[in-house]
Amino acid sequence: MRSNRLALSVNLLFLLLFFPPLSSLAGQDPTYTGLLRGRVLSRTDDRGVADARVRISRSPGSPGDPDLPALSPVDLRTDGAGNFSQSLPVGRYDVEVEAFGFETQRRSAIQVDEGDTTEVVIRLEPAPFRLEEIVVTPSTYGFLGEHVVSGQMLSKEELEVRPHMGNDLLRAVAQVPGVTAYDHSAVPYVRGARADEVLTILDGLELYEPYHLKQWDGSLGIVDVENVRSVDLTTGGFTAEYGDASAGVLSMRTATPGAEGTRTTVGLDFMSSILKSEGTFAGGKGAWLASARRGFLDLVFKITGLSEDQDLHPSYYDLFSKLQYEVRPGHVLSAHVLHAGDDNHGIEEDSTVYRHQYGSSYAWVGWEATFTPALSARTVLSAGRVWRDRNGQDYWAPGTEPAVEVRDQGTFDFLGFRQDWQLRVSDRWVVRWGAEARQGRADYDYYRWMKYWDPNTTDPGAPDWALRYDNLRVATARSGNEVAAYVANRVQPLHRLTLEGGLRYDRQSHTGEQQLSPRLNAALALAPRTFLRAAWGQYHQSQGLQQLWVADGDTTFSSAQRAEHRVLGLEHSLRNGSLLRVEAYQRVISDPLPEYRNLEDHVEGLREEGPGDRVLIRAEEGRAQGIELFARGPGNRAFTWSASYALAKVEEKVDGRWVPRPFDQRHAVNLQLGWRPTPDWSVSVAWIYHSAWPCTAQDFRLDRTVSGYGFVVQEFGPLNQERLIPYHRIDFRASRTFRLEKGELMFYVDVFNAANRENAQSTEYGVWILDDGSLMTDRGIHPQLEMMPSLGVRWVF
Predict the structure, then answer these.
(1) Cα separation of 389 and 649, whole Å?
(2) What is the architecture, at CATH level 2, of domain 132-286+297-796?
(3) 215 to 110, 271, 413: CA distances (angstroms)
(4) Tens digit of each residue's pLDDT (9 = 90 or more) over 711-767
(5) Which of 630, 728, 731, 794 could form a disulfide with 163 if both were Cys (CB 3.0 to 4.6 A apart)?
(6) Phi, psi of 94 (to 5 degrees)
């Protein structure tokens, strides 16, 4: 029944989506009445500039045709010869052209007449490399915004074409080579590292709990990507301004409204609804943005039947607001508020009853100041709270007394200050420095009661756990401060060579530790479109005040772990706009932080109180190494593609033996195909593959008490010495945009796991005691998500 419902839903969505474009492709769309055709050339040699970004917008005061709908700005890419074309309503238009290695050019008031073709030629002036804009970190991937030098950039338009469940564009981060994630999670696991080894930043502020539904490994980000201007993911070798993270950095910057007036966005899909409003005031000196999002995954589960064997009710919401004002030229003040909350409760098929609530609130003000053309600074003052309230009961069987009862409450409050400076000493020398201080307090109140057996039994031959209660109570508060400072010196000894050396200092009072982290990055322009980048550095990560493992009885902070990064990458952009990239890396970890893991990695209501499968891993050292390949086709309007392959190995040394880490995957492939026959239509398909993740084998034996009562003993084999099945997934997305008199309306369908493949998250065993007293076991897989279609609409006006 569940598969039939899913298949029917998908068929209906396909019919809704694909019937309209037949008339559109046949030329029955009356919106466009003229053609603007252009060519972008280099002024030095009159050669076409490939993959240039062309933005077409209505000229201020252009009369146009009052009977035709308003036109939002249109973004295009030139083809291999530098050509572009676009059908437009009658009127006057401004054209802005940006291209790597060239100065931006603008042409204003270009007239488009009905039935005519307007020709335009735009010549670009070569631009010298600006020292502070050169990307010196090999492992940098950009989304939504624009990089000056690095070709690895996906615009918002390109990302919207790609499949992304829940309309959460941050899920595209998992498409980066070397990054993986669970189906139900948006959290990027970078090159086999833990989730908390990636530093997450929003407008200069670190987010401690950046994802919704923590119990399920973070299903969605708490920052709606509708509010984001750019996302940068650095998977290794990051520079000295980033600290207390040993694997990567995910940095987001929010959008700032640029147009006069007010714009509103209303969105609705199977996962959530969003309302956003933004605008400007004081003649454009001020801007504001406010949004609210509400999720209703419980309805998704009910419609699709994903929880027909359970009674699950996950819900979440987030609120964001931003106010910005330019007090005088070069000085901008801003204020931000971000609040997110989750309420996840349910009854699982094993009779576990739980309710988990999580919340986080952040407030911060920023000041970006340009004192002189050479000296600038950014200041951030912040405060926030992160909290949780978990409770649940696990029963041997319905109607019995609970075998496990848990109550877990905790809060983390912080105040922070950060200041970053930049001084451009000369065209070939830039110095950056900064410092930050943070005061925090974490309160823990944890109680667990576990009854393993009937306390009234007096059988002397019963197992050790027969008469045992496991009672744990941790009520404690920890406070402390963290301070850090850094300096980075960027020089250009040769026109094509850029070097950056940095040194970072960190100190944590709650652990009594301090660290020095030297770092060195380099970028060599072998040719105008070819860059060789390298990085080496040391990176430390301490255990945070809010990261005590109190559910496991741990009340002592561990020493900071240290990682050494070595990265070498080569990137080449072809004249037609294609991109090729290859990168080799190695991350060596000394003194890894202890880590509690569930050997049966199920998503459960009382996951941290696992039924005998939770273990403490005290690795002696760790290492991750690999080679990553990435290729992307020309960024023309009609057809796009990208492909990546990663060969990697992630290990840790436990009890003198090297074993794979949980996300060790030898091979990983990601293919993306997109087709945009018109500016208003897009269709895309993605295929994701990676080799099998490691797992720990289980064995079972039958034992008996002296009174003859049989019980099953579960035993685990060597850590991560077996493998699950390889992973395959196909995703599909299509969208249609209607340009209305007021704004635009977009419909989209997204089908996650369109082939409905059963991929494994972990192993699952069935155990039966037969009538003859023998034991029978069966091994299977605990699957990840089945096919999940989603239909959505977004109206911007």
Answers:
(1) 37
(2) Beta Barrel (2.40)
(3) 55, 17, 21
(4) 777 889 999 999 999 999 999 999 999 988 888 999 999 999 999 999 999 888 888
(5) 731
(6) -100, 140
